[in-house]
Every structure is written in structure tokens, then in C-alpha cells.
Amino acid sequence: MSQASIRPYRDSDLDDLYRICLQTGDSGEDATSKFEDPRILGDVFAAPYGLFEPSLAFVAEDETGVGGYIVRALDTRAADLIHAPLTVPDELARVSVWRAPARRQSVQTTTNPTEFPKGR
Fold it and tell me: Options 3.40.50.10490, 3.40.630.30, 3.40.50.10420, 3.10.100.10; which CATH number does 5-103 get?
């Protein structure tokens, strides 16, 4: 078994962010069978960070490829603005998403993005 190393995110890692997000999107378990659109979780929970905060995105990679990622927002309020135009579909509301170690948060749906809770 090879040891993974952490390296900065590259644009070419975007598909890996989507893949990993989907494969761990049901409380750490594979959520592939739960969604018609396999990119929907990544559109909300992974890709925006790689696209809009690439300097704060990292991947874990070994000789077999990327197997994990770490993403962060420098400015939570700015990150909220990135997500503000998103309307979370009903199918996401039924999935519990693992957002951080030892802390799970259910996804909420709304047609008004300003209704999402602030102050993370």
C-alpha cells in the first residue's frame, strides 16, 4: 500500500472532486444510487471551492490517483455569495452530508437562498 501525499488542487482535479463527493456523499457512504444527476452533490459541496478558492483546496494523491480532498473558504460570507444562486433540489434534502469530522449536518432546501442559516 502506498502512502498518499497532500498537494495543492489543480484544475485537472475537478472531476476527482465530483467523484469523491458522490462516493462519500451519504454520510461517508456511496451516494451514487441516490441521484439521477451524479454531479449534483459536487456542484454544491465540492466544485465551488475548487473553482472559486483553489488556493485553499488540496487533494490526497497516491500512485493510483486522487483519493480525497480538503476544501476551505477563506471568507465564509463570500462563499455564501458563491452558493447563494443555488437552489438545492429536493433530492438533496433527503441526504445527510458529512461536512466535518464528528459533525453532520442535514441539507436544507429552499427556493430562497437567503433562508439558509448563516454563522457557520
Answer: 3.40.630.30
Q: Cell numbers 469530522 label which residue?
A: 101
pLDDT attached to residue 76: 72
Domain ranges across the chain? 5-103
pTM of the model as a whole: 0.67
Which amino acid would we find at residue 36?
E
First to last CA, the chain: 37
- The CA-based angle 91-94-99, given to 5 degrees, is 105
pLDDT tens by residue, 27-41: 999 999 999 999 999
